[in-house]
Structure formats: structure tokens, C-alpha cells
Amino acid sequence: MKIENLCVRRLIGDVAGATTHGHKMAIKGGYIYQTFQGGYTLSPLGWRVVRNIENIIRQEMDAIDGQEILMPVVSGADIWRESGRYDTVDVLAKFKGRSGTDYVLNPTHEEVVVDYVKSVLETYRQMPFMVYQIQTKFRDELRARAGLIRTREFIMKDAYSFHETQSDLEQYYERCHGAYERIFARCGLKNVVSVLSSTGDMGGSVAHEFQLINDMGEDTIYLCECGFKTNKELIEEGSEICPKCGKVLNKVRGIEIGNIFQLGTKYSDSMNLTYAASDGETKHPIMGCYGIGVGRTMAAIMEESADDKGPIWNMATAPFAVEVIGLPDKEGKTLPLAEEIYNNLKKAGIETILDNRDARAGEKFADADLIAAPIRLIVSAKNLANNAIEVKYRVNDIDTSEYKTSFGLDTYMPDVADAILKLLGK
Predict the structure, then answer these.
(1) Which of 3, 149, 258, 365 lies at a 20 to 30 A Cα distance from 288?
(2) pLDDT digits over 317-348, tens only?
């Protein structure tokens, strides 16, 4: 991709309406565009980051035997009435079709997945299993804030597991808990904690939220030195004492980026999902559900890592691994060489963007900070005079002191490709 063809508008200066640092950088870098209040178009840059996060999620869900499906954004109201939630979920957006049929824009998919599994599940031998999707949701929130932190339309990974026994659910719940820890670590998030939470509208007996500790968060969470962690909903009013060790809890702000629930039989019972059990009886399967806000994860990375220049992605989430910057020279040598390097990296399978515009160096570097490719190769007259290509790093997950700051012109092609492929783990 050449930067001049990138369908993204980057901004210089302050951003009106941005309420947090990450929100500001998402707009300045052109990652998101507000289509309506609480609904955003993801630009090619934003979509590349989201797609990378989705790939990490898919790998970790597949590793714990998840099976990917895709359910509709819209469902009939009948299944929501069947579960008993049609009149109780306050963010449920409802509308009528031209035929008079009642529809729902799904804010979550418990009803839809149970309706699907009814067509599949017959016997206990089929369990346990988990199905998941990465799908658009809509919640009729009263207020949206901070870009992708709280929206009305958003992308979520939601997963649903089905079990014969409570102990089997608990074992799988722990597997999913570990998968979530790996997902957020691979995304480069450093201050994520798992806290006990209320089950709320979801129902069930046990739930955990994955919270990024950050002053921009709208949630209040309580932490203790003994390891106890919970959200505000589970702390008795006026009491901030740890129920485990008796010490005063530390109160911090958090951004919720994921949650997991032990649902029990709330939905399988109300919607009459059954199977033939091993003892010959007909029973309702025990369920778990597991959600991650994909766009919110991107926003959380920006809130935690962005500096005053722009976002800082790790190698796994960055929209491009490398940016090649050609600074025009009088002899006309730099730009052809920059394009040669760019083409070579593309052939090696490395996601690369080229900036060969006739623009000032300062403008190019400012744009590069917003695009935030972890590796930046600079082709300039000064560097060529030293028989070298300059290398700069902008990453949050490697010790750049281990890597070269320049490549010799005589060996730059294999050196650059090999070094970058090493950084990408390929």
C-alpha cells in the first residue's frame, strides 16, 4: 500500500469532541469515523487492527476447541419472548417489519444460539462443545462515550459452551479464562485483571470481567494485596474492606474489555433445550458464555499505550509491520530505492506501507507516528551518503536495543527482510 492511496484522513492539531487520549488518537490517526452517535466506520487502518485482534481471538478460541459460526444480526422477537427477556433488557432495540412481524437487533446472542443448538443437540455424547462468532451487535444505550469504549453498534466475539455437568462447565470456564489472559497479552495490553462481577441481565451463578486498569475507565474495581479482585457491584455499600483478608481495598478505574459467565440452565430451561442424558432421562444442558469487545480492545490498546505522537501497536496488532519512508533528494536516488525496498518486503509477505510523497520530512514522520508501523525504514540522502538505510522502531513489545539501527546498502535487502521476518516470528 502506498500512503497516497490510503483511504484515511489524518488530522494535525487538537480534536474537537474527543473525551479521552485514546479517542483523540483514534480520530487523529483516521482509524475511526463517526457515522452516527455511537456508531463508527472503521477506516482501512482501523479495520486492519481489528482484523488482527480477531485473528488472535480466533486462534485462542480454536485452541480450546471452539467452533466458529455466524448468527444473524437481527432475530425474531419470539425467541426473546420465549427466554423471558423481551421486556426486561433495557438496551434491546425493537422494530416491526412491513408484514407486522416483531424483530430485535441482537445485543447478545444467547437466545439465537440456543435456538440453533436445538436443531443439533440430541445426546450427552455430543457434549461438551463450544461455538463462537465474531459479529456485529447493537445496544440502544442512552449515552455513548470515548469513541469505541462505549458505542451503540460494535463488534463482539461471543462464545457459548454446553455441558452435561456443573463440574465440566467449571473446568471449561477455567480453560476460557486462560485463553482470555493469552488474548489480551498477545494484544500487548499490560494492565488487565480478572475481577469477580455480577451476572446482571445475563443470569447464572458466577461471572468475571476482564478490566484494563486505566484512569479513563468508567467502571470502579477493587483490588487487594491478597489477590482478591471484584467490581463495584459486589461490594456492599459503604464497605471497602476485603472479605478475604480484612484489609482496605484499593479502588481503581477500569475499562471492561471482556467477560465470562457460568449461565447454568437459565436459557436451556426457559427455551426448552434438552438432550438425552447418560442416565436415560431428558435434561437441560448447562451453559457458559464468553464475550470480548473487539473494537473496545483496540480502543483499550490506544488508551494504555498511545503517546502524544500517536498509537503504539505491537507486532501482532499493527496495521502495517513496516513503513518505508523515502525522503526526496536532488540526485533522484532515494525514492526509487525506497520503492525497491517496499516491493521486496511485499514479496517476502510483510505488510508494508510506502511513503514516497513529495512532502516535508516532518510531515512524513508525523504521519508515520499516527500509522505507527512498529518498524520504520528511512531512505534519505544523508543515509545513502553513509551507505546505509536507517531503521527506527515504534513498538511496545520488544527490546529494540537488540536490533540494528541501520542496514548496509550492500546487504540491505536480505538483512531487512530476514530481520523483520524474525520480529514477526516467521
Answers:
(1) 149
(2) 999 999 999 999 988 899 999 998 899 889 88
Cβ of 1: how many Cβ atoms within 10 Å?
A: 17
Cell 444442558: give the residue.
285
| 347 CB-side CA count, 13 A | 10
Cβ–Cβ < 8 Å for 159, 177 = no
- The proportion of the chain whose per-residue pLDDT surpasses 70, expressed as a percent, equals 90
Model-level pTM greater than 0.85? yes
pLDDT(404) > 60: no
β partners of residue 137: 154
123 vs 64, 117, 169, 276, CA distance in Å?
A: 22, 12, 17, 5
Confidence of residue 410 (pLDDT cuts 50, 70, 90): low
Q: How far apart are CA 266 and CA 92, in angstroms?
A: 19
Query: Domains along the chain?
Result: 3-305 (3.30.930.10), 322-423 (3.40.50.800)
Question: What count of other Cβ atoms lies within 10 Å of the Cβ of residue 344?
Answer: 17
On whether the CB atoms of residues 376 and 406 are closer than 8 A, the answer is no
CA distances from 94 to 18, 98, 102, 107, 173 (A): 30, 14, 7, 11, 32
Q: Which long-range contacts (CB under 8 A, 24 or more apart) does 410-415 make?
A: 412/341, 412/388, 413/341, 413/344
Q: Quote the pLDDT of residue 24.
A: 93
